[in-house]
Amino acid sequence: MTAIQAESLHFRQGAFQLDDVSLHIPTGSMTAIIGPNGSGKSTLLRLVAQLLKLESGTIEVNQKDITTYKRKEFARTLAMMTQSHDAIPAITVAEFIAYGQYPYSDFGSNKHKQTDAIDWALQVTGLTKWRDRMVHTLSGGEKQRARIALALAQQTNIILLDEPTTFLDITHQFELMNLLEEINQTHNKTIVMVLHELQQAAAYCHQLIVMKQGRITAVGEPEQVLTEDLLSKVYQLEASVRFEQNYPIIIPRRNKT
Ligand SMILES: Nc1ncnc2c1ncn2[C@@H]1O[C@H](COP(=O)(O)OP(=O)(O)OP(=O)(O)O)[C@@H](O)[C@H]1O
Residue ranges of the ABC transporter domain (predicted)? Predict the structure, then answer.
């Protein structure tokens, strides 16, 4: 089964061009989009989430062209956690997460189901004990969890995340990756995320998609994709790479003076 299928995407913004990009995301998989700054990773994710409008090409989500979805129907199918650092209004954690239920607001007064979804999102992200705290009093990592909980409360089978581990310390980065892995495995959600941290991308994801200058230059399993040749060509980094227990050990070659 295919969660996301994109064919021949083209999109321009300023001097940047996304050029003939195609991708295939299997249902139930965990995928990382990696690549240097400005290579088009967020743009690609935003096109899939319909936050940007394609110039040409097609994107299907669950075998259906994204342009044929009604807005709330799409929001019940795919959730996206953006890189947004917008100020969050003065509301509690539970109230914030309840926004994730907006695509179900046409479904009458089924308050029970809505409350269940919010409780579940709080519980999965370990935020139940802080449900009545004001969001702006949470730490950066806790806020990141709340934003993931909001996406979970949307009860979609596909979740996109743009740099979910940014601003987190190493412990919280791994905690978050473990959480996403659990959501993927236990709750069978398809997860696609932009990541800069190559170790985490390789250790946790089934598939890596590598972007450079608006194009996809490699796709595949981490050990096949993350090679010395790729680091040199895509990141201009001369380094040795070996894998230990799914983790890539990347050692840059430094010129000795
Ligand atoms: N609204 C805009 N107008 C003009 N150019 C834009 C706009 N938004 C993004 N860009 C440019 O498009 C290119 C791709 O941006 P994008 O955010 O997709 O890259 P990225 O790979 O996610 O980068 P990063 O790793 O730095 O977050 C960049 O050169 C960026 O400056």
Answer: 4-238
Of 155, 184, 207, the position where a domain reaches its end is 155
Domain that holds residue 129: 85-155
**Rg, the chain, Cα only:** 19
Tell me the residue ranges of DSSP E strands in the chain.
2-13, 16-26, 30-34, 56-61, 64-65, 78-81, 158-162, 190-194, 207-212, 215-220, 239-244, 247-252
Shared domain for 136 and 192, answered yes or no, is: no
Atom of ligand 1 nearest to the CA of 44: 18
- Summarised one tens digit per residue, pLDDT across range 149-169 is 999 999 999 999 999 988 778
CATH code for the domain of 25:
3.40.50.300
With the most atoms of ligand 1 within 8 angstroms of its CB, the residue from 34, 42, 165, 217 to mutate is: 42
**Domain stops at, among 104, 122, 155:** 155
- ipTM of model over 0.95: yes
Q: How many domains does the chain have?
A: 2
Q: What is the mean pLDDT of residues 116-140?
A: 91
Asked whether the whole model's pTM tops 0.90, one would answer yes
Please indicate whether residue 13, judged by its CB atom, sits closer than 6 Å to ligand 1.
yes
State residue 132's pLDDT score. Answer: 96
pLDDT tier for residue 86 given thresholds of 50, 70 and 90: low
The protein residue with its alpha carbon nearest to ligand 1, atom 6, reads 13
Both 115 and 209 in one domain: the answer is no
For residue 40, the CA-to-ligand 1 centroid distance in Å is: 6
Task: Write out pLDDT tens, residues 215-235.
Answer: 999 999 999 999 999 999 999
